[in-house]
């Protein structure tokens, strides 16, 4: 019986093609199959590096179904490389489910190091980097208010992803739940021509983006709550919960 193949998770540039690693190019060229979050988005990247392997779509809407077929492919001894539209697969992108399924069948999984949007945003922020809390995207509706309250007392640096059309609303909500004076650092278009990082209080950053372009993907870094503020907010939310009862 032939050995099983290997599942590779291959990071791709979040904007600048020069951030693609030599190893990532080699793995993609050697893979028997490439899985892409959106084949149309990945096509220019693969063409640029002259990667001509078979490419199939693997995204949040089909990952449960397609994972079964991919596992069969891996068990036949074929190597599969997974890429997302940008950055490292499984970080706020498809990948986790497939990795978990592969490990159930003792299939080797290897993740290459590479581009991830929150790392440069965190380092650029000037906030403590020794301990941080990556939240990705907050819930859109159900559970959003609860999550704000839970994170209000988080003393580590917080990292969130946000879309352009929700940025101002999110900053407004932060002012409500975390305080208008909380320090934030918002980065957009990382590694691209119009890369920008805006730092200041929640109010200051919101005022800035009310009159500047809301384009690209945003990474928000928020200073952790001060110990004194933690005690105050804990008491406040405890009182709120008692009032609701």
UniProtKB/TrEMBL annotation:
Keyword Metal-binding: no
InterPro entries on file: 4pyrrol_Mease, 4pyrrol_Methylase_sf, 4pyrrole_Mease_sub1, 4pyrrole_Mease_sub2, rRNA_ssu_MeTfrase_I, SAM_MeTrfase_RsmI_CS
SUPFAM superfamilies assigned: Tetrapyrrole methylase
Signal peptide stretch: none
One GO location term (cellular component): cytoplasm
Keyword entries, A-Z: Cytoplasm, Methyltransferase, rRNA processing, S-adenosyl-L-methionine, Transferase
Catalytic activity entry: cytidine(1402) in 16S rRNA + S-adenosyl-L-methionine = 2'-O-methylcytidine(1402) in 16S rRNA + S-adenosyl-L-homocysteine + H(+)
Domain Tetrapyrrole methylase: 6-205
Location(s) in or outside the cell: Cytoplasm
EC number: 2.1.1.198
Gene3D superfamilies to which the protein is assigned, alphabetical: Cobalt-precorrin-4 Transmethylase, Domain 1, Methyltransferase, Cobalt-precorrin-4 Transmethylase, Domain 2
GO molecular function, one term: rRNA (cytosine-2'-O-)-methyltransferase activity
Record-linked HAMAP family: 16SrRNA_methyltr_I
Similarity comment: family membership: Belongs to the methyltransferase superfamily. RsmI family.
Function: Catalyzes the 2'-O-methylation of the ribose of cytidine 1402 (C1402) in 16S rRNA.
Protein name: Ribosomal RNA small subunit methyltransferase I
Gene that encodes it: rsmI
